[in-house]
Structure formats: structure tokens, C-alpha cells
Amino acid sequence: MIIGIGTDFLDIRRLNNILKKYEKKFIDRIYGKNEIEIVNDIIKNSNKYYGKRFAAKEATWKALSPIRGTGLAFKEIETLNDDNGRPYLFFTGKTKIYIENCEKKLKKKLKFDISLTDDSNYVLAFVVISLAPHM
User: How many CB atoms lie within 10 A of CB 110?
Assistant: First the structure.
């Protein structure tokens, strides 16, 4: 059963302008520590990396459909990659608690699937939240 769907499409040039103006202040406010460590260590095209992660945060927010003031923070929604490069969502802080509370209400675990893509100046993120199958 699908609980939520979210998508976001971002023009990297728009993000580039924000990064030029606010750079570290914006990055520290929006991105989680794991995302920042990865880009500092291995990513050559950091603007595309940050763009995909920003779109993922937006898409996840839309899929969760939170009520304003619930305390969710973009910084607490991280997109990481497994050993095969597949993206997955990692939650911390109040956002993690929000999701755990949703699971308690539903009496089921939530499953988050994410797909990211890019082409020249654009990135796209698509998130589907469903009930996790019983194991």
C-alpha cells in the first residue's frame, strides 16, 4: 500500500546561484553531516551532487506531507548510497521521530524508495513511501 509519493525537479543553475551567494551557510543548514563528508571526500561535481540531494529532500517532504510546524528538517533527511551505488534515505533527529510516530500510528514499518537522475542542468528525485512487507 502506497502511503505517499513525492517528486522534485531542479534546475542546477538555480542552486549554483544560491551556493555562490551563501555557500557554507546554505550547505550547513540544508545538508546532513554524512552528505557533507561524502562531497568533501570524493565528489568532483559537487553542485550536481548537492542538487540531487536537495531534490531528494523536497520529494521526501512532499511524500511525507507533514503538517507545518512538525519540526521536520531538510538537514535530517539524507540521501546516501549503498555499496552498489543505489540511493537510500537516512533519517535523524526530529524527522526520524516523526517517521517512527507515523509507523506507530499505522502499526507497520514504512519503506522508502528513491530514484535520482540528472541530465546537463537538471536533476530529478522521485520518492515512494509504502508499507514494508512482513518478513
Answer: 17
Domain ranges of the chain: 2-131
**Nearest alpha-carbon partner for 85 in 122, 30, 38, 27:** 38
Ranges of H-type helices in 1-135 = 12-30, 33-41, 46-64, 93-106
Q: Tell me the backbone φ, ψ of residue 42, rounded to 5 degrees.
A: -135, -15
Write down how long the chain is.
Answer: 135
Q: Say if strands 122-131 and 2-11 run parallel, antiparallel, or are unpaired.
A: antiparallel
Spelled out in words, what is the top-level CATH class assigned to the domain 2-131? alpha beta
> Which residues, at least 6 apart from 10, have a Cβ–Cβ distance to it below 8 Å?
51, 54, 55, 58, 122, 123, 124
Q: For residues 91 and 89, what is the distance between their CA atoms, to the nearest angstrom?
A: 7
Q: What is the pLDDT of residues 29-38, one digit of tens each?
A: 999 999 988 8
Question: Cα separations (Å) of 49 from 21, 37, 44, 93?
Answer: 18, 12, 9, 23
* pLDDT tens-digit map of 51-90: 999 999 999 999 998 766 677 899 999 999 999 999 999 9
